[in-house]
Amino acid sequence: MSDGEGGARIYTRVSKFELHQMSPQDQEAECRTLAAAHGRAVRKVYREEPGTSAYQEWVKRPEFDQLLSDVLPGEMVISYAVDRVTRRGMEQAGAVLRVLDDADACLVTVADGIDSRRDDAELNIGLRAIMARGESKNTSTRSRRGIARRRAEGKWLWHRAVYGLRVVDQHLRHDPETYPYARRMADLMLSEHSGYDVMKLFNGEGIASARGGLWTTASVLRIVTNPAWAGVAIVRKRLKGGKYFYRPMILGEEMDDENDFKSPTFVGDGVVTLEEHRRIVALVEARSQERGMKRMDARFARSGRRVSKLLLGNGLGCCDSLADQGEVCGSNVMGTGKDKQDGGSASYTCERRARTAGVGGNSCAGMYMKRAIADAEVGERFINHLAACEPGDPLLDVIAERWTAHEKPAELAQRAAAEKTIGEVRKSIERAEDAFADGLIDKSGFARQKSRLEERLSAAIEIFKKTPVPTVDISPLLDPNLSRPAWEAASVPEKRALLRLAVKKVRLKPVEKRNQGWDPARIEIDWLA
After folding, report:
1. d(CA 438, CA 11)
2. pTM for the complete prediction?
């Protein structure tokens, strides 16, 4: 690949932890100069948000990902240095080079003099990536130690405080303006008012929220369940992928091992006492659980989310009518009208038709079907279809697998985690062997690394062997004498959960002519197998 044969794409990044680093503007200027020296026109500059880390695995780099997606054959990717591209060591550096090689593109840096077209480029980039990773690891260690020391001294580490408090000399103190409202909020919650009650009251009285606007139920609950409201140090425990728990946790209580729990560290004044905070959290959780129990049966009501009262709701039923352009509609069905006991005739109708009729666009021709008739027909077909399944029927395997996942999620999760660990460790062993073969690590280092990995592999294999595939007995579902009474006694969410064990979609067809009597052919069921 000779110079001038393609465009150039520039990547810039700055980290919040690195001192004396070059600004994105200066990085871009240096990279443009290098592009001009190679006779390349800059097609696009990818600027990562300031403070974006290239070391932490959970940190997303959208500009970097977009760059690798956009690069075209013959192009040159220019960065100021290798450590701008990656600080996660040789593994990610090699992955980046493979992506560029597959795209017939190259990587060039200003400060390092890297050019991936050279024969020694892979080794040079690998060594610099290892050095960058080590530097980031040391910086991260120093930062964690400093944070832990300041926390142990009872200092508040953020520049902002929770509503009702303010930061004074790295300690929490009562905010004269908002503390009275915060304390009133606490008293309301302790007297078993809901977050919704507080929201309505404060908005009605014109009390501004923490951000100066209107209160929402969510904003109230975020404040009253935050342990910092009790004046204690908090942390956020990272989950895989960099996500966080939905609320902060008291420092020490985030440990998985009860033996590692520590007493709370107080960082100043609180709006509530720690005991009051725990009471408020318990009241909020109890109210959420009660609300979830009302929405659906306890077996399926762990999330507290809103659940459709329709048997064919939540995407299970769909409209099989024709839309304007002649294709099958396929839209979800929705409920209309009142139930028979409420003096009405409840029906299923096309959601697309209801939302687009009269406003233009590709609307559905329409479909109506009485819910009582449709639900009874679907239930009877479900019971009869399972009863007719012979041993070895693929549908029975699908039902057993789904029912097992529903009934025994913990056992399956443990087995899946062990299986994943086995795969990851084996890949790590292969990478260590490749690094040893390439001369990147010596014999003693390779032996130590391989020994540790083989110990992890043996432990994971042992767990995998001790965790057999859990099974459940689905025979009651196959006996109409047992399944029919159970179906009739089940709640709507339970029935819908049972249907999803075997059904992909229930298709509802429109009538062919007016005043047509009931035709079971208007319902088609797509079974999972």
Report:
1. 29
2. 0.37
